[in-house]
Every structure is written in C-alpha cells, then in structure tokens.
Amino acid sequence: MRRTGSGVTAALLAVSCLSLVGCSNHSTSTSSTAATTTLPATAAVYRSGKLAVTAAVPGHRLAETSPATLALLLPPHSKVVAWSVGDVGALVVHSYELVLATFPPGSTLATIDTFLRSYAGTPNTTRYGRPALRKLTPIPLSTGTRYSGITAFSVGRALVIAVGYDDVQATVAAFLASVRLVSSP
C-alpha cells in the first residue's frame, strides 16, 4: 500500500538535505522502471474544501485524504488532501506529489511559517504576498542526474506543497511552475 504523506515527508527531508550538503553517488531507488510512466502533463484543478489550485501533474494521479504521516506533522484538525504519481518518498523516477492542507481555525501565520521552515526549508521567494519556497536541485548519481524540486507556499490558513523527482529537469521545473492558486479558504 502506498503512503502519499510519507512520500511528501521524505521528499521534503531529501530536498532540504540535498540542498544543504549535496548528494553521494548512491541511491536507494532510482530505477527508470518506475511504477508510473511519465505522461504528458495536463493542467487540472485540485480542491480541498474552498482551497483550489491548478497544476499540470505528469501522469495518472492517485488521491489520498488525510494521509497518516502528514497528520502527524501538521497541527491536529488540519485538513489534508494529497495527489501522487509514482513514489517520491522512495526516490522513484517520474514521481510527483501535490498536497493541499488547511490548518485548523485559530492557526496563525506564524504557525504555518514555522511548519514551512521546519519541514520544507527556509523560504527563498514570495508567492501571493507571503514567504514561499521554490527549489530545483540536480542530484548527480552514477546512473545519471536526477532532479528534485519543491514549491511550497501558504495563503491564509492554506498550505500548498508540490514535490517532484525525475530524470528530466524540464518536467520537474514545468510541474513546479504550473502550480497556481485558484481560490483560498
């Protein structure tokens, strides 16, 4: 059974680690025979309550509501929906995840900012007037270069995280660039 939330968690940690210390020449799973083959990305709208974003996720997306691993990371009573292709957490090539989370009533912007800094890294850009994170990191391996990327931003109590891992830089970059806010709670 796949665990979408564990993929996002592992990907967030991997991206943070890779951006800080680089990468060794080994990988636990970088096979080109991924469970999901990359398909042309078509933009679609993804919703969680009143939160909606458009994103061009390459491949067949599987949806999961309230992934257990993300429920452990986010404040209690947060609402989370995640869509995934492949398995980012296992570093499978052609893997992508999109997570929409709404923090519970009473959450402050500082709560969300702390979450982003702790689990996704220090913001390096701005989106929708708030600090945001956007990283695309090349990972040199003995079998070729892989690319890991993340976009994370918040609007009000809403948090959007998009993570990609692939052997084609342009595909990861296009996915990250395609994530756009449509409506917020």
Descriptive account of the structure:
Helix content is 25%, strand content 39%. The protein has a single domain (4-183), classed as Protein Transport Mog1p, Chain A, CATH 3.40.1000. By secondary structure, it is of the alpha+beta class. The N and C termini lie far apart (31 Å). The chain has helices at residues 4-21, 68-73, 109-120, 169-178; strands at 42-48, 51-57, 62-65, 79-85, 95-102, 125-127, 130-141, 144-155, 158-166, 180-183. The strands form two sheets. The chain has a seven-stranded antiparallel sheet with strand order 3-4-5-9-8-7-6, with helices on both faces. A three-stranded antiparallel sheet has the order 1-2-10. The model is unreliable at 9-38 (pLDDT under 50).
Largest sheet: 7 strands, antiparallel
- CATH C-level class is Alpha Beta
Distance between termini? Answer: 31 Å
What structural class do the secondary elements suggest? Answer: alpha+beta
Helicity range of the residues?
10-25%
DSSP strand content: 35-45%
CATH architecture: 3-Layer(aba) Sandwich
**CATH fold annotation:** Protein Transport Mog1p, Chain A
- The count of β-strands is 10
Order of adjacent strands in the largest pleated sheet? 3-4-5-9-8-7-6
Cα-based radius of gyration, to the nearest Å: 15 Å
Q: In one word, what is the shape?
A: globular
Unreliable stretches (pLDDT < 50, length at least 5) are 9-38
Global mean pLDDT:
79
Number of helices: 4
- H/E topology pattern: HEEEHEEHEEEEHE
The tally of structural domains comes to 1
